[in-house]
Each structure stands twice: as structure tokens, then as C-alpha cells.
Amino acid sequence: xxxxxxxxxENLAQQFDDLIVRRGYQNRSEAFRDLLRGRIENERKSxxxxxxxxxxxxxxxxxxxxxxxxxxxxxxxDHHDICVSAMHVPLDHHDCLETLFxxxxxxxxxxxxxxxxxxxxxRHGNIHIVPVELNSDLHDTHPHVHLFPKT
Length: 151
Prior knowledge:
Layout: H1 10-23, H2 28-46, E1 52-62, H3 68-78, E2 83-90, E3 95-105, H4 106-117, E4 122-139, E5 142-149
Antiparallel strand pairs: 1-3, 1-4, 2-3, 4-5
């Protein structure tokens, strides 16, 4: 591990220390690494340097909304190549929380996640995308895929 030294204003240092306490970090280094990873990932996403990713899409919807549940299931089947899994949690008599786990080309995953959240009747949707390196190799005569987070 490489050591670096930074200088920051006292006010910013105090805010950083407060963040460390609120988030439960053990030390400044771990907090700084997470901030730096997040910034680098955002840069990869915004410049389209990320080619492959894993993602979770979370959204809440009313399952009694006209044909919405059916549309959401159809979308997942239409994109079965990137949909890894789905988790459905009833919240009350009407509302459901769903989480979709996706894997694939960054643009395809991002576009699909946006499409799901944009469905009429879907509320409180968000997407968490993590760029990964794709590495395929052969282990004992069967294909094996490794997904390495880029940061």
C-alpha cells in the first residue's frame, strides 16, 4: 500500500472527521479510499469508460396499479440476458419493494434500469452501478468468469 500526505483547511478536516464518525469508519484512510473510489467510478460512468458492470435497481410500486406488475415482469424477461435475479418484498396491502440484480454491458444495464424506474406507477427508484473488469478463463475444463471491481 502506498502512503500519501494531503493538506486541507481545518474546517474541511473537521467535517471529514465528523463524516468518519457518522459513517462508522475505523480511520481516515479507509474513509478517504471510499471517497476516492466513488469519485473514480463516477468519472468512469460519466465518460463512458466503464464497459461492463454489476448493478442493483431498487424501486417501490403499487402492485394493484393497472398491469404494472405484468409490465415489470415482461421487461425482465425481455432482458433476461442482463437480469440475474429479482427480489420481491410486500410492504403492505398495496406497495411492494423490488430489487433487480443486473450484470452486463454498462450501457445496456444503465438503459434497462432507467426504463424500469421510468415505468408509470414506479416510485422511489434508484440505481447502484459498479463498474467491473471482466476476466474469463478455463478452470478444469469448465468456463469460469471473474468480475473484479475496478477500484
